Structure formats: structure tokens, C-alpha cells
Amino acid sequence: MQRLVRSNFRHPSPQIRRELVELLYTALPQVAAISLTSVIGGVALAWMSGDLVYSIISFFVFITAACRIVSLQLYKSRGPDASDAGVVRWERLYGAGAAAFGASLGMLSFRALQLGDAPGAWLAFGLAMSFCVGMVSRAAIRPWIVLLTAALLFGPIVTGAFMRPEASYSIGATMLFLFWLTLREASRHLSTAFIERLEAKQALARQANQDFLTGLPNRSAFVSALQNGSGHVAIVAIDLDGFKPVNDRHGHHAGDELLRQVAARLVACMGDDGMACRFGGDEFMLLKRVQGGDLGREVALSLAREAVVELSMPYLVGDIAIRVGASAGILVTAAMDHPEATTSDLLEQVDRALYAAKRAGGGRWKWSDEDIGGDAGGHRDVG
Fold this sequence. Notes:
- By secondary structure, this protein is an alpha+beta fold.
- It folds into 2 domains: 207 residues, no CATH class; 161 residues, Alpha-Beta Plaits.
- It is 67% helix and 12% strand.
- It has a 6-stranded mixed sheet with strand order 2-3-1-6-7-8, sandwiched between helices. A two-stranded antiparallel ribbon has the order 4-5.
- Strand 4 and strand 5 form a beta hairpin.
- Helix 4 runs antiparallel to helix 5, helix 5 packs parallel to helix 7 and helix 7 runs antiparallel to helix 8.
- The N terminus is likely disordered.
């Protein structure tokens, strides 16, 4: 049943699914309240009637309630670091716990109907509906949990009601079944609306941290990554040589396409262990974690050299062959865990090195800690 229910609903992206599961696991107060109420209700039924089956079912209510509370507590320490596959397992664990608890409450009502215990049936049914309402308000973001749990909750109640000879019980059972059917559509609408809201929120966040032209992270994303980093990092500032004549001669459309190709080459240079960003115009920044000391400087120098060489290779924009150069400034430093002013200082240092390389003729790189007044610095003839 679980697979059938889930196949009819939208599967969100891993990132959104993580947010949805986190919402499920913030339900500790509600879960604790309905658990305590249900255990007290079950114990009261067993004590007043002296029925052994009531006692057994109440024990299972207690066990499933305790397991749910423990899982919610465990998620606080283990869930946030879970992989995407781990998030799916946490979701299934939540669904299994809710379903087991619902089945226990359903059996409590079934036993009351089986015994003809009208007061007990009212009490057990009240607990079941309270749990159902709370579950829908919290778990509707994952409809399969609602439908599976409600089926296991209402199934025994409907069965017990149809076993009664009174027509009113059969009518009530039919209405309860129809209510379960309405949960499907309500859950679908709630889930879809919530997922769309999260997708819109993420889209806005991407726009705030993404360059619209090249698709690279923008200045804001770069600064955030620098400030939240750890260890040592290499910062390489890149500026194109001779980009303005491309716009003047071939138009801004050609210039935009050239920038997109530059971005693609920088991403290829960085690989999977760094970040290439567009700061604006024809200026780009590279950020990569490195080791301290000479080894880190060698990696940074190799990255700057590769970027300058790659960006100096010919481009094909439409049917037009275009060639520009590139200059670079290099800085290796401890990653940021200090005030924002320090970030500005670092960017200023690497910018000075970059423009010293451009003043020296372009097509080269300079270190932020070298004498930028002279003509020192690396140069690569790519002609």
C-alpha cells in the first residue's frame, strides 16, 4: 500500500525533501501530547473494564509512542548530518512510527466495538480522531504518511463498526471510509502547495547568489563561502585583457556569449573542489581550499597559470573567432572566521596584485605579497 500511495504524489528534490523531513521531526510537543493522552486513555479503559486485551493494546500504544519520541530525539543529533539516502530513511522511520501508533489506536477502538463498550468506543474514537487531526496538520507535507497511517487507524474501526448489528454503526463506518478518501485530495493539495512554496524560496535564494548571465555564483556567494570556510584557501582574481574591444567591435551580444564561454572554462579549471565566481563585468574570482605553506602556494600558482592559459585560447562566438587574454592576482591565506572588514582587506590585496599584472602588460599573474611596483611576476606566452 505504501508504494501505491507514494507513486501518486510528487517526489521533491533532495534538498526540499530534507526540509520537509526536518519539519516532520519538529513535532515533538504534539507527539508527546497525543502519546501521553492515548496511554492514559488506554490504561483507563483497561482499569475500568478489567479486560486483558485492552491491557495488551494499551501496552502496544505505550511502546509505539515511546519509539516515536525516541526517534524524534535521535533526529536532533543524527538527522542534520544525514546523506540524501539517510534523509529518505528518516522519513520512512517517521512514517513507520506514525503508522504503528495509528494501528494501535485503531485496535483500541476495535476492541471497544467488539465488546459493545459504548463509553470505551467513544473514548477510543476520540483519541483516534485527535491523533488523525494532529497528524494531518503536521504530516500532510508527505501525503503517503497520512494515507498509510489513516488507513491503519481507520481500518480496524470501520471493521469493528460493520460487525455491529446496529445500522448507525454501519453508516458511521461508511462515512469514516469516505473521510479517508477525502484525506488523499487534501494531502495532495497541501503537499503540492508547500513544495511549490519551498521551490520558490530556493529559486529566490539562487537568484540572490547567482550571476544571471553566466550562471556562476556571484560576489555575495563568494564572500559567504570565504567567510564560512576553514583551513587555508587560494584566492585568484581574474580579469580579461582586451575584452572592451570585443563589445565595441562585435556588440554586447557577442561579449555576453564570450563571458559565458569564459565561465565554462573557469569551471573546468576548478573541477569539483573549488568555486569560480563572476564579480561583475569581465572580472572573476576563484576560491579553492589548499594546504598551508609552499605546497598551497604551488597549487594556487598552478591554478592561476592554468586559468590564464585557458582563457587566452581562441573563442568561437557564432561564426566569429575571437581572442582575448587574461591576467591574475594570487593570494593564499587562512580561511575567514573573522569580521567582514578582513574579507574586504583580502579582496583589496588580491585586486592590487591583479591590476599590477595588467599594468605589467597582461597575460601574466602576480602574488599579492610580492613587490607589485616592479615587473616581477609570472608570464606565459600563449601566442
